[in-house]
């Protein structure tokens, strides 16, 4: 997965989990790029995608902040997105659908 997408996905996950609350200020692009060992353009792309999708807002002196959600997240869509990523990963490992589903059931019971 592309590095900008990894940054975007991690910020979305943290926002969905409530770890990053609306109004939370994200690090400046150069600082986050330096911290992650990425090019500034990579982080800038992630921030642009997040802004386009409504996850963050960017404004002058206040920088980039987690946006107030317009509506509650669609949990079904989020679950499908996560399942799609997991299915792709399971396929890469060579697992069939039954083995992948069993791994999910086992992990679910451990929680």
Outline the structure in words:
The structure is a single chain. The chain is 62% helix and 7% strand. The chain is built from 5 helices and 2 strands; from the N terminus they run αααββαα. The chain has helices at 3-17, 29-36, 40-52, 75-93, 97-110, and strands at 56-59, 63-66. Strands 1-2 form a two-stranded antiparallel ribbon. Strand 1 (56-59) and strand 2 form a beta hairpin. The chain is globular, with a radius of gyration of 16 Å. The two termini are 27 Å apart. The model has no long low-confidence stretch (mean pLDDT 90).
Terminus-to-terminus distance: 27 Å
- Write down the Rg: 16 Å
Order of helices and strands: HHHEEHH
* CATH fold node name of the largest domain: Arc Repressor Mutant, subunit A
The level of helicity is 55-70%
Main β-sheet, spatial strand arrangement? 1-2
Short characterization:
Residues 1-69 form the HTH gntR-type domain. This protein is mainly α and 111 residues long.
Based on the model shown, name its key terms.
Arc Repressor Mutant, subunit A; 111 residues; Tscrpt_reg_HTH_GntR
SSE order and pairing:
Elements: H1 3-17, H2 29-36, H3 40-52, E1 56-59, E2 63-66, H4 75-93, H5 97-110
Antiparallel strand pairs: 1-2
Helix pairs in contact: 1-3, 2-3
